[in-house]
Design brief:
Blueprint: H1 17-24, E1 28-34, E2 37-44, E3 47-54, E4 83-84, E5 91-99, H2 107-114, H3 118-125, E6 138-148, E7 151-159, H4 166-173, H5 180-186, E8 200-206
Antiparallel strand pairs: 1-2, 2-3, 4-7, 5-6, 6-7, 7-8
Helix pairs in contact: 2-3, 4-5
């Protein structure tokens, strides 16, 4: 069964029929940040239109690059532990985009993994809370994030499975929404090689 995003979820006033059509009915929206303004190019049915949205940007977050795959790198001066909590709001509701996988391809399993509300996922896709997604389908997940120390994050709890380590949980299970360094920082006294099946760890998801 193929699931489509509920058009009511995208029922926002983007300023034009073409823009709304692109967002709701399979067109494309491209984003470009210019200074403090976000420019969106909506494309649908051969038509296009620029939409300008003024936004307040506190600071550019540093680029991590390939450091996320180097779990033993002691340098955490950039955003490898998470994005700096430097905005006006200390908490907010955000969203993640998760790609369904064999172990996490149902509304229930994805909501359990992300500590999110299954009813919200079901509402977005107009399905029941017992529904399954096609493998590799992108799934929007609404979550609450807040400042935890110096970083924006949403903490979830994950139970270690056979073969798991901080690297595999960060890059495979949580699909690079976290880093092995951030997990190690949450469990400072527990190195990756000491993780055992059934052990529960805190996974900080980055925003």
């Amino acid at each position: 069964m193929k699931m489509e995003v509920n058009s009511s979820f995208a029922n926002s006033d983007f300023g034009s029929t073409q823009a709304r059509s692109a967002f709701q009915w399979g067109g494309t929206i491209f984003a470009l940040l210019i200074g403090g303004a976000a420019m969106f190019l909506a494309v649908a049915n051969g038509n296009f239109e620029w939409i300008k949205v003024i936004c307040l940007i506190q600071a550019q977050q540093p680029y991590v690059g390939r450091k996320t795959t180097d779990c033993t790198n002691p340098d955490t001066s950039d955003s490898v532990l998470g994005y700096t909590c430097n905005g006006l709001n200390r908490s907010c509701q955000g969203y993640l985009v998760f790609r369904s996988q064999p172990l996490f391809n149902t509304v229930t399993s994805i909501s359990n993994l992300s500590s999110s509300d299954p009813s919200q996922i079901a509402e977005i896709y107009e399905v029941s809370e017992t529904a399954s997604f096609e493998i590799n389908q992108l799934v929007i997940v609404l979550v609450n994030c807040s400042c935890s120390g110096d970083h924006y994050q949403a903490n979830i709890t994950y139970t270690i499975q056979s073969g798991d380590g901080y690297f595999s949980v960060a890059n495979n299970t949580s699909q690079a929404l976290s880093t092995c360094q951030a997990k190690q920082n949450q469990q400072r006294d527990i190195p990756s090689e000491s993780l055992s099946i059934g052990f529960r760890i805190t996974v900080p998801l980055r925003y």
